[in-house]
Amino acid sequence: MDPASEAVVDEYLTLLVVAADRSELTAIAYRSDLEAVATWLEARGSRLLDASPALLRSWVDAAGRERSPRGVQRAASALRGLFRYAQRVGARADDPMEGIHAPGTAVALPRALARDEVERLIESVGTADVAGARDRAILEVLYGSGVRVSELCGFTLDTIAQGRWVPVVGKRGRERLVPISAPARDALEQWVVRWRPQLAPKHRMLFVNLRGAPITRQGVWLVLKQRASRVGLGDRVSPHVLRHSLAVHMVEAGADLRVVQEILGHASLATTELYTKVSEGHVDAVYQRAHPRARAGSR
């Protein structure tokens, strides 16, 4: 492997173990995969860090004929992580692995709740006590804004003071504005004005646990699990599912995909386009209902 690529690989794998809490064995396996890819690329006149999307796609196709699906998936994961890190530190301007999937890796379509299920979940949470007011605000913001759970946990009192659209820093430091819906604003006002002061937190994080400490991602997951179980939704609800549900419902209502992309903070429109596939059933239902010759018995 060339020295420049090797230096970035070393930094990436160190970060993986130290900051991302991945195991040493994972780092060793990733290094082996990246070295194998680098050797393959060098035989074709390219350094690892300079690899084009076409060359990387060719490597994935070739590896699919020689390695197990699991091995190719692991190597592809190592490459994706490496190039995202390279982008972050300025060693590469683009992500050449974007849109490249290992053979046998199906792109999982997002799960979504039906609209009435979302309504049932949110409306089941009252605001007559501190836990209810907080949980209602969390649900309204997750579904109303489509933010990731990590983004939600990073909200401060200053965040929501900025009006109907608030700034969010998403993956890889990308900034965007997300909407705060009218129901979310009402729920936030109840939480912030009436109930949050009772916990007397010594910080300005928006959402806190019942001991006054900043709420964690695990804490948000627990809130959703408990609330969902009470309305018969079992383990179908998570922060990510609410985010997916917002996107699917917007697409079904005719929202422009680029608007949905901007709200969700997707780097690529191809990611957002998954929601058009999720909504194919809705499209078919509309077609059957609206087209004069689509219904059975039409002449």
From TrEMBL:
InterPro entries: CB, DNA_brk_join_enz, Integrase-like_cat_sf, Integrase_catalytic, Integrase_recombinase_N, Integrase_SAM-like_N, Tyrosine_recombinase_XerC/XerD, Tyrosine_recombinase_XerCD. Residues 3-87 form the Core-binding (CB) domain. One of its GO terms (cellular component) is cytoplasm. Residues 108-288 form the Tyr recombinase domain. The active site is at residues 148, 171, 240, 243, 266, 275. Forms a cyclic heterotetrameric complex composed of two molecules of XerC and two molecules of XerD. Site-specific tyrosine recombinase, which acts by catalyzing the cutting and rejoining of the recombining DNA molecules. The XerC-XerD complex is essential to convert dimers of the bacterial chromosome into monomers to permit their segregation at cell division. It also contributes to the segregational stability of plasmids. Belongs to the 'phage' integrase family. XerC subfamily. This is Tyrosine recombinase XerC. It comes from Acidimicrobium ferrooxidans (strain DSM 10331 / JCM 15462 / NBRC 103882 / ICP).
